[in-house]
Amino acid sequence: MPSRLTLPRLTTVFLACLACLALAAAPSMSRGEFVYVSSFSTGEISRFHISDPVGTKTTLVAGGTLGFPTGLAFGPDGHLYIGVTGDFGPTAPTIVRLDISDNSLTTAYTFSTFDTFPAALAFKGNDLIVGRNSFFANTGAIQQITNITGGSPMQSDYTTGGALASSPGLVFDADGNLYVSDQTYADPVASGPVKRFDTDGTYVEEVIADGASGLAGPTGLAIVGNTLYTNSIMNGTILATDLTDDSTSVFADLAIPFSTGPLAALADGRLLSGDASGGNPSEIYLIGTDGLLANSYDLGLGQVG
User: Fold this and answer.
1) What is the Cβ-side half-sphere exposure of residue 195, based on CA atoms within 13 angstroms?
2) Spatial CA neighbour of 273 closest among 258, 281, 26, 13
């Protein structure tokens, strides 16, 4: 396993895109949302309120505590679950649990024999659904960890069929269908389609083919109503797919290759996109419902989602 310090810049860029955004109702503010952010390069987990990202940014887990955190997802128990890559050596990848009431960390699950390097995370009921990190050519089915919120966690394949190269983006629609960024990464090029799986995890079809509507390296995914948004990392665009007929077009263009990593939808339909450009610090972009860049936030986090 290579040392993080020996990776070329474009590889570092791609890994940064696996950091993630998670949303939660604000615990102490009457309106709006808190956004939770992982910093892949520093290991920091932070939170900010969307009303004032820079002014309300708070560090929950200090840098250096976690070994290259990636995806984030809130569980039904109210805790934040974090995919952690490890040290690229003897320390296996894990899922850790953050209690945001006191910022305490516990290990929720450890992957055996380096079979899964976590990327995107999503909950389906009490089960944690785990995507795979494409930098490690971590191919295979989406993973499911049952009993992760309590009891004895068990890992199994969630999806069947579809031959996934990796899965740095996951999102469920209101009916329980799963959408996956099936990304292939061959330094320095990311490619691949977006795929749909039914409520049982069975492969259905490609929703966006590789290269269709300008798709070049699908990464973060988000759904607002009947619209699926897909970050296209190689060209810095965000695609919008009408899930009633699967028609796809360019919704937003940040005009910065590698600027589009993870993606999160706010309650009012605006989007937040993590910057995967490898800048230090990287930006977090706010995109309006009209597809225009509304703002960007420099939170001093390094390579973040």
Assistant:
1) 26
2) 258
β partners of residue 143: 130, 157
Q: Say which residues have a Cβ less than 8 Å from residue 43's Cβ, sequence separation at least 6.
A: 61, 62, 63, 64, 65, 66, 67, 68, 69
Find tokens 């699967």 and name the residue. 246
Length of the chain: 305
CA dist 206 and 197 (Å) reads 9
In angstroms, rounded to a whole number, what is the distance separating the alpha carbons of residues 89 and 201?
Answer: 32
Distance from chain centroid for Cα 96:
15
Overall pTM surpassing 0.85 (yes/no): yes
73: buried, middle or exposed (CB in 10 Å: 19+, 13-18, 0-12)?
buried
- Asked if 118 and 129 count as a contact pair (C-beta separation under 8 A), the reply is no
pLDDT tens-digit profile of 11-69? 333 333 334 567 665 444 434 589 999 988 888 999 999 999 999 999 999 998 998 89
Q: Tell me the pLDDT tens digit for each residue of 172-219.
A: 999 999 999 999 998 889 999 999 999 999 999 999 999 999 999 999
Task: Report how far residue 199's alpha carbon sits from residue 159's, in angstroms, rounded to the nearest whole number.
Answer: 10
Structure-block tokens of residue 108: 């929720």
